[in-house]
Amino acid sequence: MASFAYGRRCAAFLFILMFVSLLSGQGYAAGQVTVSRIVLSGSVNPASAQYFSRALEQAHADGSAALLVELDTPGGLVSFLRLMVQDVLASKIPVIVYVSPSGAQAASAGALLMLSAHVAAMSPGTEIGAAHPAGMGGGDKDGDVMSKKAASDLAAYARSLAELRGRNPEWAEQSVRQSRASSAQEAIRIGVIDLIAATPSMLLREIDGKRVKIGGRELVLETARARLSLIEPAFQEQVLMRIADPNIAYILFLAGIVGLYFELANPGAIFPGVAGAVSLLLGLYAMQMLPVSITGALLLALGVLFLGLELFVTSGGVLAIAGLIALFAGSLMLFGTPGSGTELSLFVFLPVFVVFAVAAGAIVRVVLSSSSARQLSGQEGLLGESGRVVRQIEGVSAGKVFVHGELWEAVAGEKLPEGTSIRVTGITGLQLQVTKTEE
């Protein structure tokens, strides 16, 4: 009995010890600082702006000490950049923008997002800058004026953000007006960013104790032992960010036009029409989120139309050449914002153009071959055929000949007795003109 009571006491002691340990572990976890993290790569577009805004709200609702944004972007749409900057300025928690990994960039719109952040950091081997608003001029006087107005507006915006965060305002303005860009080392030397860190963990240790202003109050960051928590983009955001890529939008748009054309040329095929309609709608949706040239889109549609008409209109290749020229020009004009993150990649455009060029060449070859080939059916197919006389031909008086497995009335320029070998030289109505040939 004594040993049984002793065993019960030991079991109770172990249970209490485990319970206390569990409570202490929960208390430690509850007291641990968490920093939410998102990864923004690719162009700035409506989907990425939506993802950023939702993540910022979720990070605040989860009680995160800050939101870490790992950024790698060539730029994007200024209108959605402004929405993201507004979210940063209105945020109730610090926003840390970190250009990562090595080799990444914060160009164009990404540079302005960096300037607005409470903490701006870069990985070694990254770059920032070149924020000039590209593709806003039309090349004429009015276009130049509009381009200058857009650049001045964005330069003032960049300067105000830099002054707000205590960063280099001259560099911010030059980045817009002169497309100035800087490496990570230069950026920290001239006061554009706060620090350089090789990894996110190192970054959080470096900024521990840093003071930032949030909504008019000063906050001290405590991130040395913070735990990073990734906020994944929702399925809808992933899809929209994917199709908002200019290259995907270009392929969807072309595929949609081609599919609908084949459906109209071959009614009842069903699959080309269905696939083309879905692709075209997705492509148009993506294009409404991108700076698209209407002229470029119309040239693409015209190019596909010309290439298709080559199948039905004998133009000797003229329509095919015109279609390829329209396709080439439309592709170059479709996204007229080089350097903004919304340009068409040559690695996408060139293979597509080569495929269309090969298809056009094949179409022209088939059409030319069919038009130059000797007709093998109908009356025209009798020209040049050989046969024999089965009823004597008296010059202009018709006789009968057996040609191509059929009996025909025929006339000749001379008298041809039965059994004479002949060759058809012409046709008049249902009467053949023949001439004598050697056996």
Distance between the termini: 132 Å
- The count of DSSP E runs of length 2 or more, i.e. the number of strands, is 18
Q: How many DSSP H or I helices?
A: 14
Sequence stretches where pLDDT stays below 50 over 5 or more residues? 19-30, 136-143
Query: How much of the sequence is in beta strands?
Result: 15-25%
Q: Mean pLDDT, as a whole number? A: 82
Question: Roughly what percent helix?
Answer: 40-55%
Side by side, the strands of the main sheet go 8-5-3-2-1-11
Count of individual domains:
3
CATH class of the largest domain: Alpha Beta
Main sheet specs? 6 strands, parallel
Whole-angstrom Rg = 38 Å
Task: Look up the CATH topology of the largest domain.
Answer: 2-enoyl-CoA Hydratase, Chain A, domain 1
Structural category: alpha/beta
Would you kindly provide a written description of the structure presented here, covering whatever features stand out?
This protein has 439 residues and is an alpha/beta fold. The chain folds into three domains: 19-236, 2-enoyl-CoA Hydratase, Chain A, domain 1; 245-372, no CATH class; 379-436, Beta Barrel (OB fold (Dihydrolipoamide Acetyltransferase, E2P)). Helix content is 50%, strand content 19%. It has 14 helices and 18 strands. The strands form five sheets. Strands 8-5-3-2-1-11 form a six-stranded parallel β-sheet, sandwiched between helices. Strands 12-14-15-18-17 form a five-stranded mixed barrel. It has a three-stranded mixed β-sheet with strand order 4-6-7. Helix 3 links the parallel strand 2 (66-72) and strand 3 (95-99).
